[in-house]
């Protein structure tokens, strides 16, 4: 069993951040092209600059977005690691049994029967 140094509070922050469609859209924008400024992100959504800043703060608190200063600009980058940790902890373990069952079913269906073995 794999254990991560990841707390329930961090899971909650990621789930909270992903719960909002605007924040998911901002993450999608960063996925398509990383290193965007606030002005670039603001131009893609129909809300005020302060609204976008508020959403980015939630994403930063969940560690889904990291920032770096480049001169006078603040660049925003996607950090996919928290999403992967959520996937590994909450999704992957629940699908393992179903995938194993489907693999077993496939093997049973493809196994030769007594009738197929006879000439």
UniProtKB/TrEMBL annotation:
<dbReference type="Pfam" id="PF12840">
    <property type="entry name" value="HTH_20"/>
</dbReference>
<feature type="domain" description="HTH arsR-type">
    <location>
        <begin position="3"/>
        <end position="98"/>
    </location>
</feature>
<keyword id="KW-0238">DNA-binding</keyword>
<dbReference type="GO" id="GO:0003677">
    <property type="term" value="F:DNA binding"/>
</dbReference>
<dbReference type="InterPro" id="IPR036390">
    <property type="entry name" value="WH_DNA-bd_sf"/>
</dbReference>
<dbReference type="InterPro" id="IPR036388">
    <property type="entry name" value="WH-like_DNA-bd_sf"/>
</dbReference>
<dbReference type="InterPro" id="IPR051081">
    <property type="entry name" value="HTH_MetalResp_TranReg"/>
</dbReference>
<dbReference type="GO" id="GO:0003700">
    <property type="term" value="F:DNA-binding transcription factor activity"/>
</dbReference>
<keyword id="KW-0804">Transcription</keyword>
<dbReference type="InterPro" id="IPR001845">
    <property type="entry name" value="HTH_ArsR_DNA-bd_dom"/>
</dbReference>
<dbReference type="InterPro" id="IPR011991">
    <property type="entry name" value="ArsR-like_HTH"/>
</dbReference>
<protein>
    <submittedName>
        <fullName>DNA-binding transcriptional regulator, ArsR family</fullName>
    </submittedName>
</protein>
<keyword id="KW-0805">Transcription regulation</keyword>
